[in-house]
Design brief:
This protein has 189 residues and is of the alpha/beta class. 37% of the residues lie in helices and 18% in strands. The protein contains 6 helices and 6 strands. Helix 2 (29-41) runs parallel beside helix 3 and helix 5 packs across helix 6. The longest helix is centred in the middle third of the chain and has 18 residues, at 113-130.
Length: 189
């Protein structure tokens, strides 16, 4: 089983560097174009299923890719972005002005990493058992993917920013995850 993990296309909030979290923000035109480029680049690969977060920016990215691959999109709310609590909609500067330089140390209702990882593994285990031997594309979000990759591929550098519409491909053998491709943006070149 191969699973391709895609971060959704860009939004206006990405460009403004606003925390999106579970806010339902739509793709911008660049996000739609980049999703189409990724969809076109996947035409020569074997993908059977697309499952997306139910948030608009991920679902629309998945639907654009799905049109190229002639695959209908399924949604799973467990693939949503880590909840941002009170910081959703704010920039780093706004957070510093409101809560100070050490805002990350405050309890602002941000979903804990271990909770994100738990729901990620639950969703992926379910997909693994529901679609054995199938190749699945997952469209999700930056923090969600970063937390999952850190828990699954600890040997890789997780400080690198996950670019919008980047593709990571893992192969799953039993309980083991093997990396084939990490944060590829070759479709954007």
């Amino acid at each position: 089983m191969r699973i391709g993990f895609i971060r959704h296309g860009s939004t206006s909030w990405n460009k403004e560097k606003r925390a999106q979290g579970s806010s339902d923000i739509h793709l911008d035109e660049q996000g739609r174009r980049d999703a189409a480029k990724l969809g076109e680049s996947l035409l020569n690969e074997e993908w059977d299923i697309i499952v997306s977060s139910d948030l608009s920016r991920a679902k629309e990215t998945a639907e654009i890719i799905g049109r190229f691959l002639h695959i209908d999109v399924k949604t799973d709310p467990r693939l949503r972005e880590a909840g941002g609590g009170q910081i959703e909609g704010t920039t780093e500067q706004e957070r510093i002005e409101k809560w100070g330089e050490k805002w990350r140390e405050l309890d602002l209702g941000i979903e804990k990493e271990e909770l994100v990882v738990a729901r990620a593994h639950e969703a992926l285990d379910d997909l693994y058992h529901q679609y054995p031997g199938q190749n699945i594309l997952i469209v999700s979000h930056g923090s969600f993917l970063r937390h999952f990759f850190k828990s699954t591929l600890p040997e890789l550098n997780h400080e690198k920013h996950i670019v919008n519409t980047s593709l990571t491909v893992l192969r799953r053998k039993g309980d083991e995850w093997l990396n084939e491709l990490y944060h590829s943006t070759s479709h954007l070149d």
